[in-house]
Amino acid sequence: MVGSAADEPAAVDLDQVEADIAALVADAGVTHQTDQISGIVRTALGMGRDQTERLNLKIANFALAEMREAFEIFQPYIKTPKVTIFGSARTRPDDPVYHQTFAVAEAIAANGWMVVTGAGPGTMQAAMEGAGLERSLGVSIRLPFEAEANQIIAGDPKLVSMKYFFTRKLMLVKESLGFVAMPGGFGTLDEIVEVLTLQQTGKAVPTPIVLLDATDDTYWHGFRDFVQDEMVTRGLVSSDDMTRVHITDDPADATREIMQFWRNYDSLRWVGKRLVLRLHSEPTVDEVASLNERFDWMLAEGRIETTGPLPPEVSGADKVDLPRLVLTLDQWKVGSLHQLIRAINDLDSAPSSIGHPPLPD
Which residues pair with 305 in a beta bridge? Predict the structure, then answer.
């Protein structure tokens, strides 16, 4: 009988359960982030008491196992900056897109960065050929009609194979400080549009996004025209939303866009309603005045000002040595932050060298 008392989980002593969880974590030898590990155990037990259906439990179980494996594979490279390259598995070696992908991956790797791809054939293989095995990380998907991984990365310890697209997309996005999308099909569009959505909504921090065409190709310009003609005109997205992307058919220009993004800008943090931008060089008084003149339309109130670390940053020892700008951003202008960041990177006071991406201490 659905909903009968016999189906209800037995009453338990929650205090004893908490003690048992703590003991289990300790007995397993876990000493790192024990509160989070205990939370995972608590959630799993809750799903059991909820009588979650077996299929849903399998999804949760497999997803957690996949994330564990992926986190372990990426961990040794946590201090190496990464760019994810999206593109089609169907791109042939004689396609100009293949050669463009090779070239941009080669240039990115030459700057000391690693390249992350979906590890399949086509564009993904071209990226790994360009970057070289040593600077390639692969996140493959198990499909019935496609080889598990391309010949460059197959069998390498820097490859993780995923059952689910959502865990794969997490790892293709989570670790990267820049994105390059090559012409591709539904999968490629799905991936790059998700990146755009995450940054548009503020669920991901700003990073450089490059849409790279083959020479004189129109693929990404056509995409931009569709967004403008069919989405912006209907009020479905803001006219500023596409300013966060850089469209080019030059691999050197694509690489420069990514490296330049991190020239002066380091990171951001929200402190209440205030947005704090952490930089590598402090702007001059005149430069701050110029930024206010150019970007006052982004502000909900007040002005862009220099500041020291705010109290929550101090208490968390959060990059307290870096100079800062603080502003109250109009929440509807989050998608326009790239314009301000590019302007900050172009200031005369910015470092002369480029490429200072924020990495874990």
Answer: 326
Give pLDDT tens digits for 96-143: 999 999 999 999 999 999 999 999 999 999 999 999 999 999 999 998
| Helix or strand run (H / E) with residue 43 | helix 34-49
221's enclosing H/E stretch is helix 219-226
Question: Residues near 290 by Cβ (< 8 Å), separated by ≥ 6?
Answer: none
The reported pTM is 0.91
b/e map 107-141, b = 16+ CB within 10 Å: bbbeeebbbbbbbbbbbbbbbbbbbeeebbbbbbb
CATH, domain 76-261, list 3.30.420.10, 3.40.50.450, 3.40.50.720, 3.30.450.180: 3.40.50.450
User: Region 208-212: what's the mean pLDDT?
Assistant: 98
Rounded to an integer, what distance in angstroms lies between the CA atom of residue 244 and that of residue 200?
9
